[in-house]
Amino acid sequence: MRLLYQMSVTGDWSREAKVAFLAESEEDRPKSFGLTGKVDEPYFDRMMDTIFDKLSEIDKAVEGASDNWKIGRIAKVDLAIIRLAVGEMLFEPNIPTAVSINEAVSLAKLYGSDKSYEFVNGVLGRVERNRATDAFADAGGDGDS
Fold it and tell me: Rounded CA gap, 14 and 123, in Å?
């Protein structure tokens, strides 16, 4: 989440930024909010590669779930949290959706504004409902049952 935020702020979406982020020593990483500074590198690499490769698809899902909110209007911290959660929801089948949403809400409570967690929860809930509706339609459901 922190790297996604950093990339949004700096505009540097290069893979080199990911490498530089990982190269930071554990001592340089913030210890606030109980963070250990350790990075689960296999997960980190997988998710960052997914987000790099699928960012437009992730952002399309976010915009489709955030009423009248274009990507550029969403607070950068909230957007970083949402992008990470949506990446998990869409492309990490081994992570239950509820876990992704709960973790995102927790991050929003720690890093976002007073109401960020509500916004994040609402957007992610709509992403999940949209996914379920799309899956139903793809399976041949017509809604006339």
Answer: 27
Cα separation, 8 vs 62, whole angstroms = 15
Query: For residue 131, what are the domain limits?
Result: 41-138
In a domain, 1, yes or no: no
Q: How many structural domains comprise the chain?
A: 1
Q: How many CA atoms lie within 13 A of 142 on its CB side?
A: 2
What digits encode the pLDDT tens for the residues 50-108? 999 999 999 999 999 987 788 989 999 999 999 999 999 999 999 999 999 999 999 99
C-alpha 81/C-alpha 100 separation (Å) is 10
For residue range 92-127, list pLDDT tens digits in order.
999 999 999 999 999 999 999 999 999 999 999 999
Phi/psi-derived region of residue 33, left when phi > 0, alpha when psi is between -120 and 50, beta in every other case = left
